[in-house]
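Fill in residues.
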């Protein structure tokens, strides 16, 4: 238990530092903004209570907001993503449920499950964040392009992180 908490704290610190020190400085033409720190929320264990998911989401969003000077937009988008997580997990739940002691990994539940789960949550975050940033429906199409391009790049980084951090274990049957 202590090992799991320590691992989650280390992951939190690593991905927040990676986001604010390196990835916040990457922006191509205003259309690609990688937000790998969302990996923190995606990888919380299945048994994490909703209040803790939302607290972790809020703190992660506020920390990124502090460094990006975005006045709570990341926090709002992360809390919405964290709140939606339990519903998305129920939506994609296997017939016999999840093993509560595990994390939602690519190797545990497969590529299609993980892509569906993570892409939907990343879309929720990006949709809320980018529309809060623009706060204007006149920029609807350009904002959708920014959401799509940032989402593709973020998903590529998330899949690469999955493959680097998690080694294949026993596959779910």
């Amino acid at each position: 238990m202590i090992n799991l908490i320590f691992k989650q704290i280390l992951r939190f610190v690593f991905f927040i530092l990676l986001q604010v020190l390196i990835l916040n400085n990457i922006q191509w033409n205003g259309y690609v903004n990688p937000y790998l720190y969302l990996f923190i929320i995606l990888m919380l264990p299945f048994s994490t209570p909703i209040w803790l998911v939302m607290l972790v989401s809020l703190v992660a969003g506020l920390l990124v907001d502090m460094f990006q000077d975005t006045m709570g937009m990341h926090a709002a988008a992360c809390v919405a993503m964290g709140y939606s997580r339990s519903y998305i997990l129920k939506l994609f739940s296997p017939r016999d449920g999840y093993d509560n002691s595990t994390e939602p990994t690519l190797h545990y539940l497969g590529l299609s499950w993980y892509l569906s789960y993570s892409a939907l949550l990343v879309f929720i975050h990006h949709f809320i964040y980018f529309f809060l940033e623009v706060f204007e429906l006149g920029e609807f199409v350009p904002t959708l392009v920014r959401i799509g391009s940032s989402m593709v790049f973020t998903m590529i980084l998330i899949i690469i992180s999955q493959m680097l951090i998690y080694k294949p274990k026993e596959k779910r049957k």
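The CA atoms of residues 1 and 7 lie 10 Å apart.
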